[in-house]
Amino acid sequence: MSTLLESTRISVLDRSRTREGYDGPQALRDTVALARTAEALGYHRFWVSEHHSVPGVAGSAPTVLAAAVAAATASIRVGTGGVMLPNHQPLVVAEQFGVLASLFPGRIDMGLGRSVGFTDGIRRALGRDKEDARAFGGQLAELLGWMDGTQRIHPQVHAHPAAGLRVPPYVLAIGEGAEIAAAAGLPLVVGDLRRRDRLMQAIEGYRSGFRPSAWSPEPHVIVSGTVAVAGTHEEARRLLVPEAWSMALARTRGAFPPLSPAERIEGLAMTEKERGLFEDGLRGHLAGTEETVAADLELVIKETGADELLVTTSTYDREALVDSMRRLARIAGLGARGVR
Question: Is 162 exposed, middle or buried (0-12, 13-18, 19+ CB in 10 A)?
């Protein structure tokens, strides 16, 4: 077992991916079930995401889903990875997390992103445009003000029951977003393992520009990435196949469909462009046996100085997914750590 892995928190991000033959409600139930598994295995956090009008993703309301996850678990931290702040009014976000933290004290995380809807139609439906992402720094400051009771934009308005509750905020970002997290003195969640140079640049800039705050006295980096662990390298690779094909279709046909079984995808006749994108989608992730993934994770921690790892795996085979989580928990010694 790796000493670094033993001392590094490991958490889970689930995007509530839909699967061929199963509907969106089933994907949400799968997410809740996976959270219970993560808790039983000793993972530190379980986060859910926000996507709008994506056929392959059922997770469109992260605070609602986080409530369901928290209600179905007892000790694991629960949060969002993340709420896309430009899509919402900061007061409403503060109120939602205030309710969550009131119902599940000491267990809620507020992960925040700066993305807006990825098509013009979605942005119009949300009442947003690309420019709203540029206002993220101001929105973040307003949200934190609602949470700690210091906001002065609307002096006669208060975020009940959020004001005064300590809900830890995290910024999901790279590049400019990492700079905003540093200036605000907030923990950073960064995920780009396939582009290590960009990842390291964001982390180094964040640490060098970090200003201590009441939220975090020192820099805190959570590195996120796709991790798949199986008995053989080929089995681990097959866990990545459904998501890689879905991404290839998104880039060639403008669709992001539900996940298909790996065995059917591998038998498809792909165009040259589809094949290239599919193969590229399989590269750069941490996938393999317990021994190889342990070594890969150790290298990531050494290179990045990560305080925590946030792992995600989207695949069709739920049994294989749970097996991957069990194997990762084993190599990280999660079960031996007890309550953290």
Answer: buried
